[in-house]
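Hey, can you fold this one?
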Amino acid sequence: MIKFSIPTMTGDEEKYIMEVFHHKTSSTEGSFINRCNAWFEEKTGTPRALLTGSCTHALELAALLFNIETGDEVIMPSFTFPSTANAFILRGAKVVFVDIRPDTMNMDETLIEAAVTERTKAIVPVHYAGVACEMDTIMDIAKRHGLHVAEDAAQGFMAEYKGRMLGTIGHVGAYSFHETKNFQCGGEGGMVLLNDESLIRRGEILREYGTNRSQFFRGEVDKYSWQEVGSTWRLNEINAAYLYAQLLHANEINDDRLRTWNAYYEKLHHLEDEGRLELQKIPENCRHNGHIFYLKVKDLDERSAVLKYLKENGVYAVFHFVPLHASKAGKKHCTFHGTDTYTTKESERLIRLPLYYKMSAEDISTVCRAVEGFFKAG
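Sure. Predicted structure:
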């Protein structure tokens, strides 16, 4: 069986983890944490990058930084993971969903402004599959209405919008290094990008139990103390060491995933030309990162049939998010503004094919033959 996902391994992870044990620095502000933070600041150009325990933690920190309170509204797509909504609902917000674009599965930027009310506090674009939302339009809406923007770039590291890295365009960005992502921490991990310099000091305080501990370690204050209610959203040194081993191979990992993505596209494009399925679309102003290769079939019934056929032929493929507004919690805490023209329909058509670092050409061909086999059999 060809697995859907295999965790990325460069071969250096164990070496760096053992270095942590050797130096006995398995704290939450050690050498590898600092190296990772500095690497991301240099790579992305953000003024402050901070490792967190998960992308969820990064989004929760964004909600606090935006001063989200009971009664506030936050606009986002329904086609996303529950963490995107949870982070803001936990602060008392009502989540307002808008429909997606069928070409990218991202929030339709033309529908956002109509969903803005006097209670709207923030917009949360989700860069699905490492393909950028239309950020110029989103940032313009936010500026004109005095709103904050938190980019859920969980799937978007190393991808770009008009030459800018995803996660660096909004006021705050969030990355994920979960074991299913392109770059991993050996389990859970994430990062918050504080792109608005006015948020940096408070972001550090909130992440450090609500204390000014970071300022103390930089020698900016003579002692640290409790400043406001915060928590700990930090990653540990062992997971940071695992991640750092992968960052040193960042371009190699990214290029390898793009080679697999391109191979899929070349081998399956004829099925789209024949009208059998639709392939993923990448807008001209976007550079994606090969995080996901998906295709769309006719409807939910055909998707179920394709997945069954692939499994029977040794390929483990999957569907993705069930739209949040259709869920029990979504119905309780959220509302859908406008019409669900594409969110449900397109989500029910989508199939994700196996894609991971160093996937062999033979396995790619096996997957493609299985996809072709379904449509030939039909």
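The domain at 250-377 is CATH 3.90.1150.10 (Aspartate Aminotransferase, domain 1). Let me know if you want another pass with a different chain boundary.
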